[in-house]
Amino acid sequence: MATLPVSNPPINIDDVQELRKINPNTIPERFVQDVTERPNLNGIPLSLSPSPDDMPIIDFSKLTKGNKEETHEEILKLSTACEEWGFFQIINHDIDLDLLESIEKITRGFFMLPLEEKQKYALIPGTFQGYGQALVFSEDQKLDWCNMFGLAIETVRFPHLWPQRPAGFSEAVEEYSREVKKLCQNMLKYIALSLGLKGDVFEKMFGETLQGIRMNYYPPCSRPDLVLGLSPHSDASAITVLQQARGSPVGLEILKDNTWLPVLPIPNALVINIGDTIEVLTNGRYQSVEHRAVVHQEKDRMSIVSFYAPSSELELSPMPEFVDENNPCRFRSYNHGEYTVHVSESRLQGKKTLNNFARI
């Protein structure tokens, strides 16, 4: 009988790039997921619906530059995407393609630095800022096959976490984040319009917004069927913007109709998903969706994720427009800052954090 290629390495190290250098064909036991959590990498049976090709594609240029009819049709598509999927890909997004290439180059440059250099920016416990494994609370907790590096762009920043190498890192991240912020502000405007609200309702409500960036590096794995690149979760943000690095294998999967569905990268497109904040504000009309990442046997994968959220001071609850006798209130009022802290103190476990914290 074949045995699983797992082991407990003689050194206590959770950095997957280093583990792969030590023994590329061995998976430490701590990364081997329980049987029920392991990804099915044999593909989705064709008889099942939906298909990955069904994921909505939103043409940003039609929202911002189209004629009245084109804009109206694209807003209707956006409404369907948010209500039925919670995820969509966006094309013609107005972010310069050279900037997308630049942030990918900078990200890869950081992850290729020696471990001792990256460890100068080690993750700050209880936050998502820094380099390492986030949301680890016990010695027996299963770990994701991923190295992460996170930074806050606005509000609570830790300047000592911004690397000096590779050259130009800070400038590239700042420029990229400014463009992503503009995109998020525009998308929230059109999401509001798709709900029949005034376009500036979220901008006025959110106050001093929070923005963060997280860079993910997923090394190849000799047994991708045993591990997860990133455990299932929903995002606490209002919306999230994901850039899948060019040439990366398929890795992002969303839970649609109880089926894990791969998100097939479209060249030069960005992926946007609804966060918990919008689900609460719309009383569940637009829902955040569980998603995860799987890894590849031979190729590495890289992604850059930007989170856009309201002020920590904001008290969140369903908006009156979405509560009536046919749609009773589904969430209690809560402080967004408290929720963010709660998320940072919880393991990635699907939508349990939202369900336990805010749902009535």
From TrEMBL:
Sorted keywords for this record are: Iron, Metal-binding, Oxidoreductase, Vitamin C
Which InterPro entries does this one have? DIOX_N, IPNS-like_FE2OG_OXY, IPNS-like_sf, Oxoglu/Fe-dep_dioxygenase_dom, Plant_2OG-oxidoreductases
Query: Which Pfam families does the entry mention?
Result: 2OG-FeII_Oxy, DIOX_N
* Keyword match Plastid: no
| Entry keyword annotation includes Glycosyltransferase | no
All copies of the Fe2OG dioxygenase domain together span 209-310
Task: Please list the GO terms describing molecular function.
Answer: 2-oxoglutarate-dependent dioxygenase activity; L-ascorbic acid binding; metal ion binding
- Give the family per the record: Belongs to the iron/ascorbate-dependent oxidoreductase family.
Its protein name is Fe2OG dioxygenase domain-containing protein
Q: Which organism is it from?
A: Glycine max (Soybean)
Q: What is the gene called?
A: LOC100790167
